[in-house]
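Risk register update: the risk of archive-format incompatibility is retired. Evidence:
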Amino acid sequence: MMSQNRQETKDRLRAESDYQINLKAEIEIRQLHEKIDHMNIYYGQRLFQLQQIQINLMEQVLNKK
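Archived output:
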């Protein structure tokens, strides 16, 4: 009986530890997703700006002909 109680205690502690580790991992993954989302927005906006510059330059070239 005492051996069984010790094993239950170990199992409970291991389960709590696993839960904490999984929770930390989930938080880190969410933070990484947020960073990637911000990067996608920034680089999407920058790409749009560069495309606008290209369009303006192409229009200048065409208007000179």
